[in-house]
Amino acid sequence: MSTLDYGIVITYISAMVGVGLFMQRRASKGIEGYFLGNRKLPWWVLGASGMASNLDVSGTMINTAFIFALGASGFFVEIRGGVTLIMAFLMIFQGKWNRRAEVMTLAEWMHFRFGKEKDGDVARIIAAGSIIIMTIAMITYFAIGSGKFVSEFLGIPGFMGLEPQFWAAVMMIVLAMVYTVASGLYGVVWTDVFQGFLIFGTIMYVCVLAFTQFTLPDTFMVSVPLRDGGFQAIETTKEAWTSLVPPWEMNFAPESAYSIYNLFGVAILFYLLKVIIEGSGGTSQYMIQRFFASRSDRESGLLSLFWTSLLAFRWPFIMAIAMMGVVLGTQQGVIQDPERVLPVVINQLVPVGVKGLLVAGLMAAAMSTFDSTVNAGAAYWVKDIYQTYINPQASQKTLMLHGRVSSVILVVLGLLFMLVIKNINEIWGWITSSLGAGLLLPTLARWYWWRMNGYGFAAGTVAGMVAAVIQRLVAPDIPEYFAFVFTTLASLIGMLIGTYLTKPTNEDVLLAFYKKTRPFGFWGPVKKRLDPAILSQIDRENSRDKLATFFAVPWQVVLFLTGMALIMKTWTQFGWLLLILIGLSTGLYLTWFRHLSSEVKVD
User: Fold this and answer.
1) Predicted pLDDT at 271
2) In this model, does residue 188 exceed pLDDT 70?
3) How far, in Å, CA of 233 to CA of 498, rounded?
4) Distances (CA, A) of 546 to 551, 552, 553, 558
5) Per DSSP, what are the bridge partners of residue 170?
6) Is the dihedral of CA 430, 269, 563, 340 positive or negative?
7) From CA 588, how far away is CA 319, in angstroms rounded?
8) How do residues 7-18 score in pLDDT, each as one tens digit?
9) How far is CA 84 from CA 134, 298, 566, in A?
10) Are 54 and 205 in contact (CB under 8 A)?
């Protein structure tokens, strides 16, 4: 980069640290402010922060890699991660259900659902431990991506036997830690909002550049990674590459790392099943923290809608980068590593000055995801383990100290794991299809099945996570759907054994949970204790939410695909998608948006 580009990046970094430190005083009064912003943050701030947190560099690099290598249908691989579709479920019902609990963390929620007896304690400890493990895995994932990206531009050397991308990741993480540790969620969301403007400007510039100056040739070469660390060039056509209709089968050679997607139709159906389970069961970590921090049912819906609408701009940006990467490949030889398409394109096709802004914008994307993950993960140690079971009399000053120290420890552990995992897709595939899959069924059943108790949740979670580790050690290269089935079955068996070998949750605890949360599902024994008039209102709200979900899921997919079709200038696809989007938006308005202010009151 030029001196001007470096100056822009340094100015951005200084501004980020300054905003975060400015918020330190507001966050230092107690852990309620440090982890939830005292539940006084506006919905649009939480929504903008959520968008910035979702638009991470690691995810952008791997999604660009899939579209570069597989064409437009590579979009559907992202469904595995859940971010594409899980927002639809949060928007319609999961967001408000979580908000109603008025807790700080998902682990604290376990006491709300299972009570404060021994089974509730076990569920809370296991939930906190499992999410801390997931947080460390996510930090590793973000570190690998941001390290690959930043090392491409800043010329950081390798030393002490470690590669440049490791030290680039360390630099990024240390900078983000300054304001994350100092100011908690206040610093996270306001720096995210600031970074969101920069990210949005980056997206718009790249999209306009690709739309006006880059045209795909009729035939061209792409590249896919091999299992041995090498790469293979493959010829494709513009027609096949730009088609948004995913093929049922692909023909990658067995030695290709993408051969796990050869049964592409099966893989997509598996991803859809997984995300429906995941979306219906809710999420954890930084995403759900935004809903715990929201002020009302209405605001939880609005922040989701705003979050999703902003996130839609990510996909035209990814498509634009992939197109530019293809064109660059026709000029100087195909880009071998698909995961490096993003930094290579920016480095070689963006002019001086603008390059600095783009690098700063994408550094913002990396830091906004990292800071949210760390802040949310630290809450589980402070609130659910230290304060609840080790030192219940701890002062706010002591709790704040533990919040900051635990944040640093989580980051160090994540960086250490980075030393043994080099590939973004490798860690992301394991997180989403194995480790995360082991948590899905216990997370789902807690909402919809009255008989499930804390022991069932704990046993199912432990069985699933142990199965995920075994799969990683014994059969790391099996297709993701096989890994998913293995860990999910282990989790299901553990959950059922834990539930049926122990007594049900106390009826008064179940009634208090149901009256406040009002979920749908199998709650017959509990619902019998409510007034029929109240039940009628609850059933009406739930029926409306179920119907709205059928509009929300395809609405979100079509929203993202429409922007991609526009960038590719495939006008027939764009026209059909736009018509479908209008129809789905109308249905979503009628079944959900106009009812946002409606809330059942149960005394």
Assistant:
1) 79
2) no
3) 50
4) 9, 10, 11, 19
5) none
6) positive
7) 27
8) 887 887 777 777
9) 19, 22, 19
10) no
d(CA 183, CA 17): 10
Q: What is the DSSP letter of 313?
A: T
- Look at residue 114 and give its three-state secondary structure: helix
**pLDDT-based confidence at 520, cuts 50/70/90?**
very high
Side chain identity at residue 538, one-letter code = I
**Number of residues written out for the chain:** 603
- Look-up of token digits 């304060």: 387
Dig out the tokens for 427 from the structure. 């860690």
pLDDT of residue 36: 53
In this predicted model, what pLDDT tens digit does every residue of 551-586 receive, in sequence order? 999 999 999 999 999 999 999 999 999 999 999 999
* DSSP-H helix ranges across 475-527: 480-500, 507-517, 524-527
What mean pLDDT is reported for the chain?
82
> In 115-263, where does DSSP find H-type helix?
118-154, 164-213, 238-242
Which residue type, as a one-letter code, is found at position 59? G
Q: Which structural domain range is residue 395 located in?
A: 3-422
State pTM to two decimals. 0.81
d(Cα 101, Cα 110) in Å, to the nearest integer? 10
For residue 61, tell me if it sits in a domain. yes
Residue 243 included in any domain:
yes
* pLDDT exceeds 70 at position 412: yes
- 3-class secondary structure per residue, 375-395: HHHHHHHHHHHHHHHHCCCCC
How far apart, in whole angstroms, are the C-alpha atoms of residue 416 and residue 212? 43
Q: Classify residue 191: in a domain, yes or no.
A: yes
DSSP secondary structure letters along 235-263: EEEHHHHH--S--S-----TTBGGGGGSS
CATH number of the domain encompassing residue 349: 1.20.1730.10
d(CA 376, CA 408): 13
CA 378, CA 374: separation in Å to the nearest integer?
6
- Tell me the C-alpha distance between 575 and 361, whole Å: 31
Please give the C-alpha separations between residue 76 and each of 234, 264, 308, 341, 537, in angstroms, as whole numbers: 20, 9, 17, 19, 38
Domain count, the chain: 1
Helix (H, G, I), strand (E, B) or coil at 132: helix
Helix, strand, or coil (residue 23): coil
Cβ proximity of 285 and 28 under 8 Å:
no
Residue 286 lies in a domain: yes
| Gyration radius (Cα) of the chain, Å | 23
Closest by CA position to 356, among listed 166, 195, 154, 175: 154
Q: What is the pLDDT of residue 6?
A: 80
